[in-house]
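---------- Forwarded message ----------

FYI, see the Phosphogluconate dehydratase record below. Original note from H. follows.
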Amino acid sequence: MTVDPRIAAVTARIVERSKPSRETYLSHLREMATKGPFRSTLSCGNLAHGFAACGPNDKANLAQDVVPNLGIITSYNDMLSAHQPFETYPELIRKAAREAGGVAQVAGGVPAMCDGVTQGQPGMELSLFSRDVIAMAAAVGLSHNMFDAAVYLGVCDKIVPGLTIAALSFGHLPAVFIPAGPMTSGLSNDEKVRIRQLYAEGKVGRAELLEAESKSYHGPGTCTFYGTANSNQMLMEIMGLHMPGASFINPGTPLRDALTAEATKRALAITALGNEFTPVGEMIDERSVVNGVVGLHATGGSTNHTMHLVAMARAAGIRLTWEDISELSDAVPLLARVYPNGPADVNHFNAAGGLGFMIDQLLSVGLLHEDVRTVWGKGLSSYAVEARLGENGAVVREPIAKVSGDAKVVTTADKPFQPNGGLKMLTGNLGKGVIKISAVKPERYVVEAPARVFDTQNGLQDAFKAGELVGDFVAVVRFQGPKANGMPELHKLTPPLGVLQDRGQAVALVTDGRMSGASGKVPAAIHVTPEAKDGGPIARIRDGDMIRLDAVTGSLEVLVPAEEFTAREPATADLSHNEWGLGRELFARLRDNAGTADEGASVLY
């Protein structure tokens, strides 16, 4: 199967750029892998502590050191819908492991926070850095050196990227990711948006808003819109870390349980004790990363992954850049319309053919690398399937249909919704940023208007409520970057800006903050770097400066004479209110040492 020359060229560039770091990474991985099953290196006292709580049979098996032991890293908590289903997974996994002749132990838990709960709240300022905390917490669990492979139970925004970083840091071990699936469909996305905008305009009250939100987010599983959580699941499957067809099966169903048991048995089958050893650090390579980026573009996925994928790749010694992501976007058509890029949710997407259909279509035109390693043990074409429950309760897979089940939701490669993936890098005298245009109408790709500058999202909301945001303008919301306040999501800006846009005003957003997978119909240059806290150009913008955001040419410019603009002193802001409360004081070192957005906004690399 021939790979499109554009995909091949970007992949080759990443391979060349990554050679020094990738070679070092693989050298370390192979040194760890040659030491064999690691329980043999533990003293009797070490080992006794490691299996003291096991039952007699598991204890005997671990003592012999010939039975594979599976470490479970879980993000379970019962407050958050996406992670609540994981409560029952450890026992299911232990049972499946015993059936396969192995042992499974919960190696550790990691925190899992929900951006939906913390949206617009102080706790959101911990969110981005929770990714790196998750990676470190998982590493603590696996550091006991008791395991031949690991399974990772995680779903949402920062959890899966953090777990992936951890898995690649323990790249000598096989790794399988096990999802929980999306909640069943509730209130339609169009109706939810309508109620939110009415609330923003003061036309309905909090009771009506809460009723609509509760009907949207109503049960166990991920939110059903195509934000970061569901983009995560797509990535894990298209990168070969899930079982084929596993991503979007609802929780609490027999098929979901069967997929979990199957993933357990597969993880045990690919350890160094068998004949299919598949260490995840060898399995995930530059081609896998490119496949993830292609999937992100083809599905109109989360802008958060312009940071997360960079950080995830670095954990494997792979150097991915925004330029790579933007160039791939130009080569990959948009094949899915899932909210916020359309009215459908992920359940509709899955019913229409879902990821199996997408993979098949992308492979058919050479936009994916088929010849990658996967946990399934076969190339990526084995993921162009639909998973079903067989008569005996096991998972069966059927080749995916060649025709979309709903052409308004997923389409074929020869009839794309738009010719590019909708994620672009913007550059100019304001620095670098990214924009998601898959939900933006083409006539709004270019906005040139005077700036209205705010240092908080509340400042913009107050101006909206006071009726001060009249005429065309570009909202500049700064001091929202990683070093300023942890880079919280700014989704509370979407309803008021959407209202003004619907009234006929030309509006856009420029921010060093982020907007995540729910970036919608308002053109938004986000993740702008250097950030204002670092004295970036965004800190020099003043009210009334003309700004041009051009998603066609990929430029982001302030139209002020260069000499005048560079002579300005960067603005400063009082950020003391971001430094304490709800744990923010514990994250001070992380804010101080955070990398830039285009480098993954990480404290680890």
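H. also flagged this: DSSP finds 22 helices and 14 strands in the chain.
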